Amino acid sequence: MLSNPAGDEKRTSLHGHWSSRMAFILAVTGSAVGLGNIWKFPYIAGQNGGGAFVLVYLVCVIVIGMPVMMSEILIGRRGRRNPIATMELLGKEEGSSGNWRLVGSMGVLAGILILSYYSVIAGWTLAYVLKSATGVFAGASAEAVGAEFGGFVGNWKAIGFYHTLFMALAIFVVARGVERGLEQAVRFMVPALLVLMLVLLGYSISSGYFGQGVAFMFTPDFDKLTWDSVLAALGQAFFTLSIGMGAIMAYGAYLPEETSITGASAAVVTADTAIAILAGLAIFPLVFANGLDPADGPGLVFQTLPLAFGQMPGGVFFSTIFFVLLAFAAWTSAIGLMEPAVAWIVEHYNRTRAQATVFIGVLIWAIGFGTVLSFNVLADTTFLAGTVFDNIDYLTSNIMLPLGGLLITIFAGWVMCRNSTSDELGSAGSLYKAWRLLARFVAPIGILFVLINAVT
Ligand code: TRP
Predict the structure, then answer these.
(1) Per the structure, how many domains does the chain have?
(2) For residue 19, how many other CB atoms are within 10 A of its CB?
């Protein structure tokens, strides 16, 4: 192995490297932008009363999400292994303990659980591509669109089929490796998604209810804000940025030395937040224009957007393209959700990437039937947070991701020595100081405070 001129042996990753700084940013953006922005953000905001929730969410993204993301990338790049092995290695190297690997293990598990339901919803987007293309929504009324959705998710065989199809697509790409194909897909998809969101926004503005939508999203009514909604906002910040579970750590492991971690994080956070806010701005006016309920839940996008497309000129075309893009966005996220588990199996059990992917993929597919059945056969079987789907979602977004983020910032801020982190973040200037302040104090204390208040 060649040692680099600085004298300190830098590790390299087993799985190859990103071809450029842009490739890394595109891959992380591809993982961040997904159903979280367009499907989840609007319905969670709607269920939690709008304005105040959105404000807390934005604060969480900036003061907690940003430092956690930077911490994950720097840990990943320093370890250059899968998240479990990286945490173990750095834990020992920094004079603490190899048990830090448990943070990685929790992340691997979170990724598996999240993808088990993510894939079901992504399957809905595949089905909606077909429904859109065949004109099911052309000129349809709110009732008809609602009935179409209800009939579809009420049929477990139908949504089980699309869940299976989506998992097959995800397994296919992950089995083939990190780089191939992915960069091109994201390079095209994110801008195209932005353009279509703008088309929808235009329609929303013309609906006459734009003001009401904006007011709902941005007028904070703190009386409606409970600790539960604050936790939901924190969980959503983690979910939408793909942080707290080692996915970004796994991607960081393939990052070239010279790339600026701060710059890359800022770019991803900005793009991701912009798309979520645009989705909200497009959807809420339509909710009010059609007399729908913002607190309607997971069906919200699937009931509002087809309605809007059904009424605009060229709607069949736009609607088809929109759901294709959304399926793509979900696909690039699914890849990130599997990456920690797959990288771990490849390294730990010495398997090929294809073997590891098929094993993990089939496991996730099977667990996914808990969610498939949550919308029909088991819809009335509720416990703790609700259906099986509600429980998996609550456990992962509201508990596992924040807890993972808490431990990651404690590790980067307190366990790693100053030299190690400043070496990765590349400066001792004010940006570094700001990160360290956020990672040592603001993020961990903030997360802990919200978790304690919401859970007790
Ligand atoms: N951020 C993704 C979205 O908004 C979902 C997600 C959560 C994710 N954690 C992840 C994607 C880890 C990739 C890797 O849709």
Answers:
(1) 1
(2) 12
Please name the amino acid found at residue 66: M
Q: Kindly state if the Cβ of 336 falls inside 6 Å of ligand 1.
A: yes
Residue nearest to atom 8 of ligand 1 (CA): 242
- 109 CB neighbour count, 10 Å cutoff: 17
pLDDT tens track for 228-245: 999 999 999 999 999 999
Q: What is the pLDDT of residues 338-365, one digit of tens each?
A: 988 998 999 899 999 999 999 999 999 9
Residue of 201, 203, 211, 224 lying closest to 54 (CA atoms) = 224
- Are 61 and 68 contacting, i.e. CB atoms less than 8 angstroms apart? no
Name the residue among 341, 255, 330 with its Cα closest to residue 72.
Answer: 255
Residue pair 322/339 in contact (Cβ under 8 Å)? The answer is no
Domain that holds residue 397: 31-455
* 81 occurs within a structural domain: yes
pTM: 0.94
Q: How far apart, in whole angstroms, are the C-alpha atoms of residue 23 and residue 2?
A: 25
CATH of the domain at 360: 1.10.4160
Q: Are 80 and 94 in contact (CB under 8 A)?
A: no
Distance, in Å, from the CA atom of 379 to the CA atom of 360, rounded to the nearest integer, reads 27
Q: Is the CB of 34 under 6 A from ligand 1?
A: yes
